[in-house]
Amino acid sequence: MRDVGDKTISKKDWNLDFVDLQFSDLSGRLHGVTITYKELEDEEKVKNGFGKLDGSSVKGFAEINESDMVLMPVMSTLRKIPWENDTYRVLCNIYRNRSGGRFEKDPRGVAENAENHAASLGYRSYFGPEVEFFVFDGIEVYASNPSEGTGYRIKSAEAPWDSSGSVIQKKDAYYAVTPSDRTGGVRKEIIRTLRNDFGFNIEATHHEVATAGQSEINFRYAGITDAADMVQTLKYVAKNVASNLGKRAVFMPKPMYGDNGSGMHVNISLWSADGKRNRIYDPEDSYAEISEEGRYAIGGLLEHAPALSAIVSPTTNSYHRLIPGYEAPVYLAWSKSNRSAVVRIPSYYEKDEKTKRIEYRAPDPSTNPYLAFPAILMAALDGINKKISPGEPVNKNIYHMDAHERKELNIRELPKSLDIALDALESDMEFLKPVFADSLIKSYIDMKRAEAREIATYPTAIEMLYYHDV
To answer: Which H, E and C letters describe 30-77, residue by residue?
Structure first.
């Protein structure tokens, strides 16, 4: 017998032919290798792992002379792939080898390290990400010969440029219903798959603000590692379900000009080790029912926000989203119920310890959750350890303030590009080091520097529009 998620599977139930061993690279992309199910029936092989990984072929992992690595299945994540008739899927931890220990650049290992580190300090942390993405009818990208020119086209039956029926204008799609909402059926099929086949506790889904099928799916909060597993699984399921329905699920932060981009707001709560007390909650606090520890945690998030950006907003495209006017956070401030601040204290309910949380609004769905969630936690814990004050809350719409007023209130801004964010991370990384290996941080920065440098070399269609006749 073998425990798998919430149920026990006996060998007689192992009637499928294959198992995909999946893992994440530093950027957050899933990779996998397929074995036969009989390999996974062998208890000794499962215990020792599968020596199937060439780490030198995964960007940022290892040199060719140290490339042999072992995939260790995390059996609690084993699930049948519902859109395939013969295959299971299981997430894996990465080891250098059985005697060499855990691979220090395994992103999932960072999440586990962070969970253990918080526990050693007397905290149990919970993360609830709100994952936004687009469901397009299709994307055409013209870049096979960049020297000739590049471009792209988004296809969407509900968007004003494609539809001949009910349309949704830009920035006008929040909570849209049928017949304008053309993607609700796709969202529901994604949810059915997540719930029935992958054990998710789904709380809500809806159309988001942008046209062209912008969507959001919320699932119940969990510990760091489990929450990161669920983000990776949600993206995996959404892409496959959409593809099987002739659509494209896209987690790119800002695919369209002039409309809202996709974020991944992260809700954080810190509880006592026994899970009986929410340590960021204070029912006597008259402003937001936030404890002193909670305020220090916010101070840590604000202090380290520029460095965090390199991890939670990790693409050049992320910074097209982080501009004023599109409900994306730009300014380093905190408040309750104020979505123009990077840190928000949701205030739907009063005197409710279970729902009291801190919402960090900078992340987007292109991030690697195995790195983003630990980084956010370490910033919050550093704030508590150093008693970093977040300053006074800002209750006004910061987008409507001028530069002088923001300066008076000491409101800084998030980085305006990936390169600036990487500069910030290089100068402010000590708070990460209890759980992030130095080699991982270095490899991540080098990889992202190269990515930004490469993308910067390409002329864009808009540059051609603006400058072809100068």
So the answer is: EEEEEEEHHHHHCHHHHHHCEEEEEHHHCCCCCCHHHCEEEEEECHHH
CA distance 64 to 67: 5
Residue 442: burial class (beta carbons within 10 Å; 0-12, 13-18, 19+): middle
How far is 329 from 302, CA to CA, in rounded Å? 12
Q: Which of 421, 402, 422, 419 is nearest to 411 (CA)?
A: 402
Domain boundaries, the chain: 2-102, 114-467
- Catalytic residue (one of 20, 181, 359, 364): 359
Alpha-carbon distance 80 to 408, whole Å? 57
Q: Same CATH topology for 2-102 and 114-467?
A: no
CA-based nearest residue to 128, from 294, 301, 369: 369
Can you give the pLDDT at residue 259? 92
- Taking CA 424 as the corner, what is the angle to CA 423 and CA 425, rounded to the nearest 5 degrees? 90
pLDDT at 164: 66
Residue 435's SS3 state is coil
Domain 2-102 annotated CATH 3.10.20.70: yes
Question: Does the active-site annotation cover 207?
Answer: no
Catalytically annotated residue among 158, 216, 282, 382: 216
Q: Is 130 among the catalytic positions?
A: yes
- Please indicate whether residue 149 or residue 15 has the higher confidence score (pLDDT): 149
Determine how many CB atoms are found less than 10 A away from the CB of residue 340.
21
Q: Is 54 a catalytic residue?
A: yes
Residue type, 53: L
In tens, the pLDDT along 379-410 reads 999 999 999 999 999 888 888 888 888 888 88
Tell which phi-psi region holds residue 262, choosing left (phi > 0), alpha (psi between -120 and 50) or beta: beta
pLDDT digits (tens, 9 = 90+) for 170-185: 888 899 998 889 999 9
- The pTM of this model reads 0.93
Is 216 among the catalytic positions?
A: yes
Among the listed residues 182, 303, 361, 364, the single catalytic one is 361
Nearest alpha carbon to residue 190 among 217, 214, 211 = 217
- The residue annotated as part of the active site, out of 115, 158, 208, 282, is 208
Listed range (5-19, 106-120, 188-202, 432-446) with the worst mean pLDDT: 5-19
- State in words which class domain 114-467 has: alpha beta
- Average pLDDT on 332-340 reads 85
As given in the structure block, the two tokens for residue 418 are 């990936």
How many Å apart are CA 144 and CA 154, to the nearest integer? 17
Integer-rounded Cα Rg, in Å, for the chain is: 23
Give the whole-angstrom CA distance, residue 154 versus residue 166. 18
Q: Which of 129, 136, 166 is nearest to 259 (CA)?
A: 136
Give pLDDT, residue 350. Answer: 81
Half-sphere exposure of 360 (CA within 13 A, CB side): 32
